[in-house]
Amino acid sequence: MTEVTSVRPSSIKAIQTPFHGGYTWPQLMGQLATNTEGIFGTALGVSAQIVFLFVLFGAVFDKLGAGDWFMRVAQSILGSFRGGAAKASILSSGLNGIISGSAVSNVVTGGNITIGTMIRTGYSREKAGAIEVASSSNGQLMPPVMGAAAFIMAQNLNIEYRSLILAAAIPAFLCYAALLAVAHIEALKLNLRGLPRSELPPLKRTVLEGWYYILPLGYLIGILTVNPEANPERIALNTILIMMVMMFVQEGFFANRDGRGLGQGLKDGARKLIEAFESGARSMVGIAIATAAAGIIVGIVTITGLGFGLADVVESVANLFQMPFLKVLAVLVMGQLIALILGMGLPTTANYILMSALIVPIIARVAGLDTSNPAQMLPAHMFVFYFGIMADSTPPVALAAFAAAAISGGDPVKTGVQAFQYELRTALLAYMMFFNPQLLLIAHDRLGGLPLAEAIPMILFAFIGLVAFSAATLRFLHRKTNPVQMLMLLVAAFVLIIPTHIAYNLGALALIAAVYFWQKAGSRREPPAPLPTAA
After folding, report:
1. Contacts of residue 524, Cβ cutoff 8 Å, sequence gap at least 6
2. pLDDT given for residue 5 in this prediction
3. Are residues 468 and 352 both part of a single domain?
4. 114 and which of 89, 158, 245, 409 could share a cystine (Cβ 3.0–4.6 Å)?
5. Are residues 270 and 386 in the same domain?
């Protein structure tokens, strides 16, 4: 059996047939079955070795009751604010994303409660579903789990997983902070109010009921981020063992308190653990199939030379521009479109595997990145990863939108279109990360080279830019924007993508302030809008 590596098709002599470019079955099987660029490649190995333990951790943590507790805490904190039902949904999805890397799973888990609450407070069925889709999809950005793709990314870059989750933390925070701003703008647009405090769980009692759920999560995040020598697999396994003990203690306590007896509590704990293991195994099946299938595609792309052809096409288009910045921008835009198109039929993990093999090398070549330096390559990998996540809410094949529409009773295509509009801020954030690696705490071509205190001004400018962009795409800030105001907001947002000079930053802030006060002055001359009728 002959092993074939990355070569152009012209360099292989084989029998020509009408069905392929001239490769024999032994060559094809050798590429797909015995090569690291095939089925049993790096991606599948990482999934089996590392990802499974984190998926199992998420399943056990959720079965322990942490997911429901996160949701009740979010409702008690944000439910009474304007648009509080949507904001609580966003916060709970973000917290749930810490332990779950699946958009559809997040929608199904949290959406059963949050979507109905949003509809009841005045959101349309499509908007309620879209907010849940956007917040659940972005759960894959939240450290420490971040879905299977993040572990594969760390392997591709040859960096510690600890370094990756520290770099990804600020963009994830910005993504959810901007989505909260989107929810607030929608609430202003629809003139919504918060939920009555009497309908919300009391914060103090809710926190006291489940404070111990923070212990295993704190152990996992603390060890991973503080100890550079920590082994992710070992830490995840230790956390699972801690939660198994907690499961028996919790169920035993509940059963003894309710008069069912300690023995019944231990039985309940064992049953829930079995259900958690079953749920984790079922979730892992989908990830394993996705990574294996992506390995097949990568192997075919490699042996046929399709990657070289795609690189030639993309670089030819980029060479139409003379300025280096425009060349890089053209490659990024084409990469974005390819990621979204591929993502319509592929899970995030498979999408990232393909994009990291096809597009990231082209970005590196055109942008002049050092492929041996993880600090230079991480923004390119994060760029394609973010657009792979956006594909979950990109119509017409938006699986998360279909799941949300099944709960809300809304139109799945309209839900997907609305979710995609909310997700446009994620697209802007991806460009911000690429052109401003300081958001990833990268400085002097070194991961973690920028202290957090020095990154704060960049974080503030990025957040303001995301809010301005969201207001422009939603056509509303304090009131409905006219074309001139929308253009001013877009210009300010794009200027803040690359905060190269403080004068430009201040000019962008001045544009945003001008639009706000312009609208504020106009709104004083209008009668107040009527309150919406609850659904």
Report:
1. none
2. 44
3. yes
4. 89
5. no
Longest C-alpha distance within the chain, in Å?
A: 80
Q: Structure tokens of 401?
A: 């939108």
What does the block give as tokens for 210? 């489940």
Please identify every stretch of the chain with a pLDDT value under 50, giving residue numbers as ranges: 1-19, 534-535
Residue 480's SS3 state is: strand
In which domain, by residue range, is 156 found? 42-290
Q: Do 347 and 274 share a structural domain?
A: no
Last residue of a domain, one of 290, 321, 339: 290
- For the CA atoms of the chain, what is the radius of gyration? 24
Residue pair 357/298 in contact (Cβ under 8 Å)? The answer is yes
Q: Is the dihedral of CA 190, 490, 496, 423 positive or negative?
A: positive
Distance set, CA 317 to CA 65, 103, 363 (Å): 52, 34, 13
Taking the C-alpha atoms of 92, 408, 140 and 244 in order, what is their torsion angle to the nearest 10 degrees?
60
Q: How many CA atoms lie within 13 A of 226 on its CB side?
A: 7
pLDDT on residue 500: 65
CB neighbourhood size of 25 (10 A): 8
Same domain? 154 vs 226? yes
For the chain, the domain total comes to 2
Q: How many CB atoms lie within 10 A of CB 330?
A: 18
- Does 13 reside within a domain? no
* Domain presence at residue 449: yes
Q: What is the pLDDT of residue 526?
A: 58
User: At 497, is the secondary structure helix, strand, or coil?
Assistant: coil
Q: Is 23 left (phi over 0), alpha (psi -120 to 50) or beta?
A: beta
In this structure, are 253 and 163 located in the same domain?
yes
C-alpha separations of 13 from 9, 32, 222 in Å = 8, 19, 55
What's the token pair of residue 271?
């049953």
**Whole-number pLDDT of residue 527:** 55
The 8-class DSSP code of residue 9 comes to: G
Does one domain contain both 111 and 188?
yes
Under 8 Å between Cβ of 411 and 126: yes
The type of residue at 308 is: F
CA torsion 97-98-99-100 (nearest 10°) is 30
**Residue 232 belongs to some domain of the structure:** yes
Domain stops at, among 242, 259, 290: 290
Are residues 270 and 362 part of one domain? no
**Of 479, 475, 482, which is closest to residue 524 (Cα–Cα)?**
479
Terminal alpha carbon distance of the chain: 66
Instruction: Say how far apart CA 100 and CA 286 lie, in whole Å.
Output: 14
Q: Find, among 49, 48, 62, 47, the residue nearest to 98 by Cα.
A: 62
How far is Cα 213 from Cα 227, in angstroms, rounded to an integer? 22
Do both 513 and 376 map to the same domain?
yes
Backbone angles phi, psi at 442, to 5 degrees: -100, 130
> CB atoms < 10 A from the CB of 258, how many?
10
Predicted confidence (pLDDT) per residue in 291-318, tens digit: 888 788 778 777 777 766 777 888 888 8
Alpha-carbon distance 249 to 266, whole Å? 8
pLDDT tens, position by position, 473-532: 999 988 889 999 999 999 999 998 876 678 888 889 999 999 989 988 866 555 555 555
3-state secondary structure of 397: coil
